[in-house]
Write a structure and sequence with these properties.
This is Methionine synthase reductase. One of its GO terms (molecular function) is [methionine synthase] reductase (NADPH) activity. Helices cover 31% and strands 18% of the residues. The relative contact order is 0.10. Helix 2 packs parallel to helix 3, helix 15 runs antiparallel to helix 16 and helix 27 crosses helix 29. It folds into 3 domains: 174 residues, Flavodoxin domain (Rossmann fold, 3-Layer(aba) Sandwich), CATH 3.40.50; 370 residues, Up-down Bundle (NADPH-cytochrome p450 Reductase, Chain A, domain 3); 259 residues, Rossmann fold. It is globular. It has 923 residues and is α/β, with parallel strands linked by helices. The longest helix is centred in the N-terminal third of the chain and has 19 residues. Bound molecules: flavin-adenine dinucleotide and flavin mononucleotide. The site of flavin-adenine dinucleotide has 26 residues, from strand 21, strand 22 and helix 20. Flavin mononucleotide (FMN) binds next to helix 1 and strand 4.
Length: 923
């Protein structure tokens, strides 16, 4: 039997989903398959017989996914060390990876400038280590539809393995003919025979069989979140899809293989919780059939170890913990098109007594390790739950009886092909049948003192409810993948619907599938199920095929130099108006249409999962009423005392304390959210001023080229050029605050910070205007240049440049609309723009933060264009080339008297990104 080992490095679950698909398909084909997190790869010895497949996504700015970053660094080190030895006397066969037979599938998005960079880097390392590629790499583009590459790549993987095994290793595969629709429809038997009788299984759950566990009655009132939303997602939309061009089609190309679900929902055998009392304790709101206040389940605070078990380790810096929402404020003013909120989280551990709070959550509030490590510009993840109204609509749609929604369940099946997010909940049939009755000890408390095996299995005995799984673990909003549509087609009793789903899942139906993903449609799983009413998919199959709900990262907008326990962050409340009409009257938004003669139509709205959760738990703060005062308190930066009072002033500027917290310090209404610190050391950080030690040195270097450390002696920082639009300015608020503190404590007079900022309107959404004007007036910002894209071109407020003279120098610049236009229009001397000049001659670092697809891309291409322009002058070109490795093949054809090409300019920016001279945090 051939062995196939599949490794995935993922941030949002796509790679893992594909790895699981390969796992299931390979198992069906008779291979011995296992799938693992990439982190386990380096811990194991390479098996010369096995075939290794790597599914690797790229995140951040061409980086590996967060959890795999350390493993990537390690394989990089191994490759570099081997290269050094190899160039000496070392025999290539001595590389421990020379026996490795590998294939790489990279996932990326061409909207980002370093497409599939981490998978390409991994390939380079494998090449250095003299490993053997048995199948050509594939690079899938999320921007245009990953399926276009993923499907044929996976389809041809098997023949590549067979060819390699039989000695023919050109990696190519036979083209596959299309399948006739009836042929595909006939394949249903293979699926249904594997489908468990789920609903029946659920029906047999007896709600009164076991006795109540006292511990479950513990008052957890401080750790609930309020499920009430005034802004409700549309839950009854039907999609308007035009299948007319497929009327005469008889064959479909590229229909994904059906993948049978292997899970069954059963009543857990070793669960001592009485289902009825459990549900009764929930305080169900009978109108909506879910609790008005939902408890954060204890398993949310655990991590999955490599064996697919729950683990809780209170010493981990990146563990999930509860952060208290201390303050909230709207940053936008009446009339703004988007609502932007600023939150302040308190991450300090709270000392709790048994009486005050549930013992089972002791240790879950705050994180001291994170308090000691974070810096301005770092990010943290929020584990936001889905909108319970949507969860409820899905459970109704797949016909789960209401009394089964909130009872603890077990997932029985083979954990092998199941996603990482569900693995710890899965028990094998044998395990389930042999399970001994056990006491349901509080696992989290137990884990604090006990790291033994039994501790882990105790954690494994925490049973989720269906409602919880769909609320915290499953992505129910993003557009369903083709593979999911393929599975759904098998459950349609109406042949027309079945065929339509097959079309959508096939390569032939790609154009139509792309409309599902389009900005105006953004079809969710619920939309699809509503559109195909004959689809009777079992709930456990749905659980199995949908991707995991991922944490949403946010950039920290404060500095620990101010308060170590306080994370500020800002965000837009995401809201999309979509195509389609609602039919039910209970939806919140009624829009009168002129041509409707008085009838009402309901808007179809989709809210962002995390930002709408945050917005609703704090009661939907409204825009601020009045624009900020134009007159600012005047401080003169002449001595430290004055600056200290400036510090105090800045601290108190924003935001407001939450009303609920004022008289209720640790009480029932205190709001907590589950978060974790994303430990990415030195990623998007402003180098510290005044420290001469290693932390100022840039970690990376490319062939000896590296960015120089910050200036330490002259009281002057080298320029840091900060470029952002919208909420992208938030981490820069932390940077600026950091510099203010350094000015006070390290006697630095010129911190060298320059901010370029794009807003829409001066009055409505100039975020942090008061603070920024203040910082500029006090010299913490050397320059502040703001563009307003929605101001009238004749308005003096179309731009605001505060560039050294102080005061409010709003100017008219008809040609400036967006922040990148400011860079383009900057005064030039000797054909070199101010920004490029600072990069080349003052060793400036450029930081870009915010929207990846619009601003991030445009700023990148403006910078590349400015580099080309500057290189027309020979001495500037030489200076540019000094900052790239001398032997880099990309610059061999640079001619005298000719500027560099745009391709070369992009390459230079990528090199600068690697050495930390051009840092981006884009989302
Ligand atoms: C390192 C990092 C730092 C970040 N820092 C910040 C920050 O400081 N502030 C901030 O506001 N954001 C930040 N973000 C972005 C943030 O993590 C969230 O993505 C953002 O707030 C929206 O989250 P949401 O859950 O509300 O929206 P989601 O529910 O994730 O929706 C977001 C987008 O997904 C798309 N979408 C939704 N449903 C569908 C569908 N069915 N089909 C197709 N497309 C769909 C839409 O384009 C929508 O705009 C950061 C991201 C990263 C990676
Ligand atoms: C914030 C963010 C940053 C990204 N950065 C890059 C990038 O630099 N290069 C790239 O090719 N793809 C980038 N992508 C695209 C992802 O690689 C792509 O969506 C992939 O399918 C994610 O797979 P995963 O779910 O397995 O992590 C980025 C996506 C996001 C959301």
């Amino acid at each position: 039997m051939k062995t196939l080992k599949v490794y995935f490095a993922t941030e949002s679950g796509n790679s893992e989903g594909i790895a699981n698909e390969i796992h299931r398909e390979g198992t069906k084909k008779g291979y011995l398959v296992s799938s693992h997190d990439f982190n386990t790869f380096l811990k194991e010895k390479v098996s010369p017989e096995a075939f290794y497949v790597f599914i690797i996504s790229t995140f951040g700015d061409g980086d590996p996914p967060t959890d795999s970053a350390a493993s990537f660094r390690k394989i990089g080190r191994i490759a570099r060390n081997f290269k050094k030895l190899d160039s000496g006397s070392k025999d290539s066969s001595e590389s421990e990876y020379s026996q490795l037979k590998y294939a790489v599938l990279g996932l990326g998005d061409t909207n980002y400038s370093r497409f599939c960079n981490s998978s390409k880097t991994l390939i380079k390392h494998f090449e250095t280590l003299k490993a053997t590629s048995f199948y050509e790499a594939g690079f899938a583009d999320d921007g245009t539809g990953m399926e276009q590459v993923v499907e044929p790549w996976v389809e041809n993987l098997w023949s590549a393995i067979e060819k390699q095994s039989s000695g023919n290793s050109d990696g190519s595969a036979e083209p596959k003919p299309g399948n006739s629709i009836s042929e595909i429809q006939d394949s249903k038997q293979s699926i249904t025979s594997d489908v468990p009788e789920t609903v029946e299984q659920l029906k047999t759950l007896s709600v009164n069989e076991v006795t109540t566990d006292e511990k479950e009655k513990v008052d957890l009132s401080s750790f609930y979140w309020n499920t009430f939303r005034t802004l409700k997602n549309t839950t009854n939309r039907k999609l308007n899809l035009d299948f007319s061009s497929f009327v005469n089609i008889s064959k479909l190309q590229g229909v994904p293989k059906p993948i049978p679900s292997n899970l069954k929902l059963v009543k857990p055998k070793n669960c001592n919780i009485d289902s009825k009392s459990f549900a009764d304790n929930l305080d169900l709101n009978k109108d909506v059939d879910f609790p008005s206040k939902m408890r954060y389940p204890q398993w949310l605070f655990t991590t999955n170890n490599n064996e697919g078990k729950f683990e809780y380790d209170s010493t981990l810096v990146d563990r999930v913990f509860l952060a208290k929402v201390a303050k909230v404020q709207s940053l936008t003013y009446k009339g703004a098109s988007k609502r932007t909120l600023l939150f302040e989280l308190d991450i300090s551990p709270e000392i709790q007594t048994k009486q005050e709070n549930s013992q089972s959550h002791v240790g879950l509030i705050g994180n001291e390790q994170a308090m000691n490590e974070w810096e301005a510009g770092d990010s943290f993840g929020i584990l936001a739950p889905n909108d319970p109204n949507v969860v409820s609509a899905i459970l109704n749609r797949v016909k789960v009886e209401k009394e089964k929604w909130h009872v603890p369940i077990s997932l029985v099946g083979d954990a092998g092909g199941v996603g990482h997010h569900l693995k710890p909940f899965v028990v094998s049939l044998a395990e389930h049948e042999n399970v001994q009755e056990s006491t349901n000890e509080d696992p989290i408390v137990k884990e604090n003192t006990d790291n033994s095996e039994s501790g882990n299995s105790s954690l494994n005995s925490l049973f989720p409810t269906l409602f919880e799984l769909f609320t915290y673990k499953i992505d129910i909003t993003s557009c369903p993948k083709k593979q999911v549509l393929r599975v759904l087609s098998d459950y349609c009793s109406d042949p027309k619907e079945k065929t339509q789903l097959l079309i959508l899942s096939s390569r032939s139906g790609t154009a139509l599938y792309n409309t599902l993903r389009s900005e105006s449609m953004m079809a969710s799983i619920l939309d699809v199920l509503n559109t195909f009413p004959s689809c009777d998919v079992p709930v456990e199959t749905l659980l199995d095929i949908l991707p995991p709900l991922t944490a949403r990262p946010f950039s920290i907008a404060s500095t620990p130099l101010s308060k170590t326990n306080m994370w500020r962050f800002g965000f837009n409340v995401v809201e999309h108006k979509l195509d389609g009409i609602n039919e039910l009257p209970d939806l919140q938004k009624e829009v009168k249409h002129d041509d409707d003669q008085g009838s009402t139509q309901l808007e179809t709205v989709r809210y962002g999962v995390c930002t709408s959760f945050l917005d609703s738990i704090v009661g939907h703060p409204k825009h601020l009423e009045n624009s900020p005062d134009s007159i600012l308190p005047k401080f003169v930066l002449s001595d430290t005392l004055k600056l200290n009072s400036a510090l105090k002033y800045v601290r108190e500027l924003t935001p407001n304390e939450l009303e609920t917290n004022k008289d209720d310090k640790h009480g029932k209404n205190t709001i907590y959210i589950p978060v974790y610190y994303r430990q990415e050391m030195g990623k998007f950080r402003l180098a510290k001023l005044g420290d001469s030690e290693t932390e100022n040195h840039v970690e990376n270097s490319v062939n000896g080229i590296e960015a120089s450390p910050e200036s330490t002696v002259s009281g002057k920082g080298k320029p840091s050029i900060l470029i952002s639009a919208g909420t992208g300015v938030t981490p820069f608020m932390g940077f600026i605050e950091q510099r203010l503190f350094e000015m006070v404590t390290k006697n630095i007079t010129n911190p060298g910070l320059e901010l370029y900022f794009g807003c829409r309107s001066y009055e409505k959404d100039f975020l942090f205007r008061k603070e920024l004007e203040f910082y500029r007036n006090e010299g913490v910002l050397t320059q502040l240049k703001v563009s307003f894209s929605r101001e009238n071109p004749s308005s003096v407020k179309q731009t605001m440049f505060l560039d050294g003279t102080g005061g409010n120098n709003t100017q008219q610049h008809a040609e400036i609309k967006y922040v990148q236009d400011i860079l383009k229009q900057e005064p030039k001397s000797n054909e070199i723009s101010g920004t490029i000049k600072k990069i080349l001659y003052s060793d400036a670092t450029v930081y870009v933060c915010g929207d990846a697809l619009g601003m991030g891309k445009d700023v990148h291409s403006v910078l590349a264009g400015l580099l080309v322009q500057a290189s027309a002058i020979e001495h500037h070109k030489q200076k540019i080339l000094e900052l790239v490795p001398a032997d880099h093949p990309g610059f061999k054809d640079v001619n005298e008297n000719k500027p560099i090409s745009l391709v070369q300019a992009n390459l230079i920016l990528n090199i600068w990104a690697e050495i930390g001279k051009y840092k981006r945090d884009l989302w």
